[in-house]
Write a structure and sequence with these properties.
Number of domains of chain A: 3
CATH superfamily of chain B: Aconitase, domain 4
Number of strands of chain B: 7
Structural class of chain B: alpha/beta
Helix content of chain A: 25-40%
Shape of chain B: globular
Strand content of chain B: 15-25%
Largest sheet of chain B: 7 strands, mixed
Oligomer: heterodimer
CATH topology of chain B: Aconitase, domain 4
CATH class of the largest domain in chain A: Alpha Beta
Radius of gyration of chain B: 18 Å
CATH class of chain B: Alpha Beta
Strand content of chain A: 15-25%
Number of domains of chain B: 1
Strand order of the largest sheet of chain A: 5-4-3-6-7
Helix content of chain B: 25-40%
CATH architecture of chain B: Alpha-Beta Barrel
Strand order of the largest sheet of chain B: 4-3-2-1-5-6-7
CATH architecture of the largest domain in chain A: 2-Layer Sandwich
Distance between the termini of chain B: 30 Å
Radius of gyration of chain A: 21 Å
């Protein structure tokens, strides 16, 4: 009987089975940022413990970093305290830290892959739920809380239960204007936000096989929004070619050897999955959230669904969403006025995302009254985008070109919504208050759709803007 | 975290507080703007801040503002489906714990939230949809009694009602043996950890 990638990676990293039935799982790479780690370092200190494997932890600053000026001291005193704390903790424990002056700073889930720290067959943990992003490489990568960050700092291990694996096959071909973001929002819409509890999602089939690594990261990133703590895609030639030549990846013959090992971590054809879900790519349109969780999503050409279309015990959340978002019966999502457009985040802040958005942005100007931000996911993404002139395209169209960070995805920095503003956002969560204002409203969509909404001042089908353009 | 501090969690007794609703995310439990700090201090009063207060600080209708549930003391929360979804922030269970919540009983919990609670010694136990609905109703009618979560008997009791509860074997073992703070247990295997470290990237 064959094994899934999850089983292979899990078995290779199992230190022992605990009497609880859980696995003591070795974590190959631990990623740390400034928000969920200071309390863990304090716990370590209090217990009089040292780090077991400091060379296996990499740190950066992303959540609280301002995107207009990163000059020290930071404008917000509390943000400066947090940045100083992670610098101090990294110095004290001998952890490699990529701060604003390093040239490698950025969102932790953007910098890991781009430096080649994320590789197939690894176990990766981070005090951040979007650690699932790294699954794009065929890594077993998941978010943990602060007490578990302490466990990893101390022992490089976690006590954890093995998830079961659901295989999600998307067959057929995406139509033009349908991006990775639309695929993942569609999956969550279909399965719901709690379907993945206790599961790992394995994404398979032609649609994922054709995706670039950056697109795969977008998909795996959103696994947690479907309730799955981790999601992955089996490594293939696309994975190998992405990794070739990256800073932390071996070179020459060592790379070729590593590549063989990486490819062998893919799920066997005769592996046993917990279950399989099949989706036809033909049914996926540019998809937008209309509610207060990422499963409340529709195609851009649809009307806001009525409560009667949902299962009875979903209706309270649906009614809550109508009230919060301010919908009236029969409203359509297209034409919804926006106040803010945000392009960035660990979901969609990579070079290919910025390219797709720029392709739209160069066709016009940001509508009057709309504040439009482009926030590269890392300093490296910013440099690459600037080398192609994307920053100029955005500026000329009236977008603000910012410095790398999490920015308005969760608004733990000066980038926030105000009052009941509506934001077209390429981020991952449309929870109540997520973007910094208790009444702020978020419409999740692809970066190209955000750019289109910025120009139009309202939600619009990006396919109408791209019509006639060469692929 | 010394051996003297091994605390077995077998039975939690506290006044109930219903926190109804499916898919209550951790951003709602503790908004990110309250996380610009390097400790968890002061989070308790900020639990569900935006569901409890309007922009001017006026109180909204919320169980945590309800005189029947707001009195200080040890509490057991009753929740519905997928409680604690979204962000991995341990700030969420830390805030609830500091507010007074020592156990949760619900229809289901998000994976990361559940793990964070276990690591803090807070049981998140599940019961059927019908039992949770009945328990919430019972508490609404007559809230001034203790709700008991018994991990050994795998039951929850309120007034004359006793209902079966479920908890994964792993979490139950960690709580019942006092190894929910896993650090020492994990460190015991250091020679084996080094072996694995030597062979994996």
């Amino acid at each position: 009987m064959g094994k899934t990638l999850l089983d292979k990676v899990w078995d290779a990293h199992a230190v022992r089975e605990l009497t609880s039935g859980q696995t003591q799982l070795f974590i190959g790479l631990h990623l740390v940022h400034e928000v969920t780690s200071p309390q863990a370092f304090a716990m370590l200190r209090e217990a009089g413990l040292k780090m077991a494997f400091p060379e296996r932890t990499i740190a950066t600053v992303d959540h609280i970093i301002p995107t207009e000026s990163q000059n020290r001291p930071l404008g917000d005193t509390q943000a400066e305290v947090m940045l100083s704390a992670i610098e101090r903790n990294c110095r004290e424990h001998g952890i490699r830290f990529f701060g604003p002056e390093s040239g490698h700073q950025g969102i932790v889930h953007v910098i890991g892959p781009e430096m080649g720290l994320t590789r197939p067959g690894m176990t990766i943990a981070c005090g951040d739920s979007h650690t699932s992003t790294h699954g794009a490489f065929g890594a077993v990568a998941f978010g943990i809380g602060t007490s578990q960050v302490r466990d990893v700092l101390a022992s490089q291990c976690l006590a954890i239960e093995r998830p079961r694996v659901r295989r999600i096959e998307v067959s057929g071909k995406r139509s033009r204007g349908v991006f990775a973001k639309d695929v993942t929002l569609h999956i969550i819409r279909r399965l719901g936000v709690k379907a993945g509890v206790g599961l790992a999602y394995e994404y398979a089939g032609p649609v994922f096989a054709e995706m670039s690594m950056e697109e795969r990261m977008t998909v795996c990133n959103m696994s947690i929004e479907g309730g799955a703590r981790l999601g992955y895609i089996n490594p293939d030639a696309t994975t190998i070619e992405y990794l070739r030549g990256r800073e932390f990846v071996p070179s020459g013959e060592a790379f070729e050897q590593a590549a063989k090992t990486w490819l062998a971590t893919a799920s066997d054809a005769d592996a046993i999955w917990h279950d399989t879900v099949q989706i036809d790519a033909a049914e996926i349109a540019p998809t937008i959230t209309w509610g207060i969780n990422p499963g409340q999503a529709i195609g851009v050409d649809e009307a806001i669904p009525s409560a009667s279309e949902f299962a009875e015990d979903e209706r309270a959340v649906v009614e809550d969403a109508y009230g919060y978002m301010g919908w009236s019966r029969g409203d359509r999502i297209a034409g919804t006025k926006i106040d803010v457009a945000f392009i960035g985040s660990c979901t969609n802040g990579r070079l290919s995302d910025l390219r797709e958005a720029a392709r739209v942005a160069r066709r016009g100007r940001v509508a009057p009254g709309v504040k439009a931000l482009v926030v590269p996911g890392s300093q490296a993404v910013a440099r690459a985008a600037e080398a192609e002139g994307l920053d100029e395209i955005f500026r000329q169209a009236g977008f603000e070109w910012r410095l790398a960070g999490c920015s308005m995805c969760l608004a733990m920095n000066p980038d926030k919504l105000h009052g009941r503003q509506v934001c077209a956002s390429s981020s991952n969560r449309n929870f109540k208050g997520r973007q910094g204002s208790p009444g702020g409203r978020t419409l999740l969509m692809s970066p190209a759709m955000v750019a289109a909404a910025a120009l139009e001042g309202a939600v619009v089908d990006v396919r109408s803007l791209l019509a006639g353009e060469e692929g | 975290m010394s051996t003297e501090s091994l605390i077995r969690v077998e039975r939690i007794v506290g006044r109930p507080i219903p926190l109804p609703g499916n898919d209550i995310d951790t951003d709602r439990i503790i908004p990110a703007r309250f996380m610009t700090a390097i400790t968890f201090d002061g989070l308790g009063e900020l639990s569900f801040r935006d569901a409890r207060f309007d922009a001017e600080g006026g109180e909204l209708a919320h169980p945590m503002n309800d005189p029947r549930y707001r009195a200080k003391g040890r509490r057991v929360a009753i929740v519905n489906k997928n409680f604690g979804c979204g962000s991995s922030r341990e700030h969420a269970p830390q805030a609830l714990h500091r507010w007074g919540i020592h156990a949760l009983i619900g229809e289901s919990f998000a994976d990361i939230f559940f793990g964070n609670c276990v690591a803090m010694g807070i049981p998140c136990v599940t019961a059927t949809t019908a039992d949770i609905a009945r328990l919430m109703q019972l508490v609404e009618q007559d809230p001034a009694h203790d709700l008991t979560i018994d991990l050994l008997a795998r039951t929850a009791s309120y007034l004359d009602q006793t209902l079966p509860i479920a908890l994964s074997d792993g979490a139950a073992h960690q709580l019942l043996t006092g190894t929910w703070d896993a650090t020492r247990l994990l460190l015991e295997a250091m020679p084996k950890i080094r072996e694995v470290a030597a062979r994996v990237t």
